[in-house]
């Protein structure tokens, strides 16, 4: 096996025996075969709605910490074989057609960007929002991987991936807000009640909607976890009395938090981990998520029957409390733009000196405490814009406000990154500059391939001088890194740089 798609991969080599994430060599091989089949499907002239679904969901299933169920990976590949005939090629063999490390690195960058794109597009499609050009680009990108392409060709394909990524994030923003309303400023309780509960984690808002409907009047409370936290700010979900609040933090803490939750847990997407025995029987997966031996809730024509989860909850003890402050969320672009005049005045008067985007993914390494130290070390006249699970490193810090404008502006899931783009563009318009001319810095925390797509999108939007960490991607060769540094000013973070603590607006 060789997998180096996420930030946790073993430095220098990638994961070669077993994944740091728990992925076995056998599962990695099956994922390689599935991606090989997806490349063949993308290169074929076969077009049908099921083919689009295979391309989008198949890629999503190979994202880090999404699907640990070899049988389900196989069944998707078999579905593809039924449509295009036998295929028996692994993506790693396709990528090694390039003997040049730099070309391979650029192809991996593209493949991982496509995985992120597929994940975001999956969420828009689930809500009925489709754009044929997005799946068209997934086809184009996948079918380019076996081709002999120059570095310039591959750089432009990666930039195109970023461009399609921005479109996809905009579509997802429209899908979420037109289905569930505009997120509102909300204080989310982290206290637990005395009823049994069901914990729902991951990014799929439609799963939450169906669960809330099906648990209405049952006496069972629903709690969000991880990337489901922002759901508490949507008007459509606030109407449910049975949505109790949020339990726990980011995905990487799930082994302890799922144990102490005491009730059933539904993992709707990444990031799910191979469970401990203490809660394995209480864990359910759905959608693209899967873990071998864990019960899976199927989608039948868009409907999911959560009755088994609800039955299981009935006999469980209420959740054990976790000490955490309540959380303020719901700063999507609409809420922030409503404050635009006050924000602009605050910048003009010098009350706000700088905005710092600290978005992306959280992860397990100790070094990630850097993001908390960084947030706490920022001067009091800076505002942090966040989205994604990265925020769990600092969203319980009391950062205060600047004349009523909160110093921590949480736009939601990583799926809501588009809000940060809208906010940055609105500020740029107001000050008659481009994004790089704003008092705005990017300190991004990455873990998996959705973050790769967001990075490509930021590069396509022309954002310069992004700090990325805690470590730079293991699949980027020194030569490609030099291009990224020379062209875009990307640099690794890891410490609190002096110039970020003594920020100045030029
Ligand atoms: Fe986090 Fe996981 Fe949303 Fe990622 S839960 S790490 S970028 O998969 O998806 O932010
Ligand atoms: Fe390693 Fe990450 Fe791949 Fe898992 S997903 S095998 S941790 S590189």
Strands ordered across the widest β-sheet: 5-4-3-6-7-9
Strand content: 5-15%
Instruction: Give the uncertain stretches in residue-range form.
Output: 495-506
How far do the termini sit from each other? 49 Å
Multimer state: single chain
Rounded average pLDDT: 95
Sum up the overall morphology in one term: globular
Tell me about the largest β-sheet. 6 strands, parallel
Compounds present? iron/sulfur/oxygen hybrid cluster, iron/sulfur cluster
Helical residue percent? 40-55%
Secondary structure tally: strands: 20
Radius of gyration: 22 Å
Q: DSSP helix count?
A: 19
Structural class: alpha/beta
Overall description:
Strand 4 (about 220-225), helix 9 and strand 5 form a beta-alpha-beta unit. Helix 1 (about 25-45) packs parallel to helix 3 (about 70-85), helix 5 (about 100-125) packs antiparallel against helix 6 and helix 6 runs antiparallel to helix 7 (about 150-180). This protein has helices at about 25-45, 50-60, 70-85, 90-95, 100-125, 130-145, 150-180, 205-215, 235-240, 255-260, 275-280, 305-315, 335-340, 340-350, 370-375, 415-430, 450-460, 480-490, 500; strands spanning about 65-70, 185-190, 195-200, 220-225, 245, 265, 285, 290, 295, 300, 305, 325-330, 355, 380-385, 400, 405, 410, 440-445, 465-470, 490. It starts with about 25 loop residues before the first helix and ends in a 5-residue tail after the last helix. It has 19 helices and 20 strands. It has about 500 residues and is α/β, with parallel strands linked by helices. Bound molecules: iron/sulfur/oxygen hybrid cluster (FSO) and iron/sulfur cluster. Iron/sulfur/oxygen hybrid cluster binds near residues 271, 413 and 450.
């Amino acid at each position: 096996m060789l997998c180096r798609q996420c930030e946790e991969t073993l430095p220098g080599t990638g994961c070669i025996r077993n994944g740091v994430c728990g992925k076995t060599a056998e599962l990695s091989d099956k994922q390689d075969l599935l991606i090989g089949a997806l490349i063949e499907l993308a290169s074929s002239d076969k077009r049908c709605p099921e083919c689009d679904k295979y391309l989008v969901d198949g890629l999503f299933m190979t994202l880090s910490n999404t699907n640990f169920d070899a049988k389900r990976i196989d069944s998707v590949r078999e579905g593809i074989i039924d449509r295009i005939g036998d295929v028996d090629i692994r993506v790693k063999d396709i990528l090694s057609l390039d003997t040049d490390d730099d070309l391979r690195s650029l192809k991996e960058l593209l493949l991982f960007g496509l995985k992120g794109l597929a994940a975001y597009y999956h969420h828009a499609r689930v809500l009925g929002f489709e754009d044929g050009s997005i799946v068209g680009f997934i086809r184009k990108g996948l079918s380019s991987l076996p081709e002999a392409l120059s570095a310039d060709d591959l750089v432009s394909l990666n930039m195109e991936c970023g461009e399609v990524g921005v479109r996809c994030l905009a579509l997802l923003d429209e899908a979420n807000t037109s289905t569930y309303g505009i997120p509102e400023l909300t204080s989310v309780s982290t206290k637990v009640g005395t009823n049994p509960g069901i914990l729902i984690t991951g990014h799929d808002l439609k799963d939450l909607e169906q669960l809330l409907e099906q648990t209405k009047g049952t006496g069972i409370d629903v709690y969000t976890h991880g990337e489901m936290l922002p759901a508490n700010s949507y008007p459509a979900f606030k109407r449910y009395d049975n949505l109790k609040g949020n339990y726990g933090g980011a995905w990487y803490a799930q082994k302890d938090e799922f144990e102490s939750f005491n009730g059933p847990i539904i993992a709707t997407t990444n990031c799910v981990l191979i469970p401990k025995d203490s809660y394995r029987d209480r864990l359910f997966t759905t959608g693209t998520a899967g873990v071998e031996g864990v019960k899976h809730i199927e989608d039948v024509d868009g409907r999911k029957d959560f009755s088994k989860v609800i039955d299981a909850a009935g006999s469980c003890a209420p959740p054990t409390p976790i000490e955490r402050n309540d959380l303020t969320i719901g700063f999507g672009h609409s809420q922030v733009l409503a404050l635009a005049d006050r924000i602009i005045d605050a910048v003009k008067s010098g009350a706000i000196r700088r905005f710092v985007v600290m978005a992306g993914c959280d992860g397990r390494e100790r070094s990630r405490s850097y993001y908390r130290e960084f947030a706490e070390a920022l001067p009091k006249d800076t505002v942090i814009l966040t989205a994604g699970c990265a925020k769990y490193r600092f969203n319980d810090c009391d950062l205060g406000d600047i004349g009523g404008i909160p110093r921590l502006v949480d736009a939601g899931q990583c799926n809501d990154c588009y809000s940060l783009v809208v906010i940055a563009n609105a500020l740029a318009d107001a000050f008659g500059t481009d994004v790089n001319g704003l008092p705005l810095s990017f300190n991004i925390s990455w873990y998996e391939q959705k973050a790769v797509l967001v990075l490509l999108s930021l590069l396509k939007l022309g954002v310069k001088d992004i700090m990325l960490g805690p470590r730079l991607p293991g699949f980027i060769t020194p030569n490609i890194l030099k291009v990224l540094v020379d062209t875009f000013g990307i640099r690794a973070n890891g410490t609190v740089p002096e110039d970020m603590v003594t920020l100045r607006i030029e």
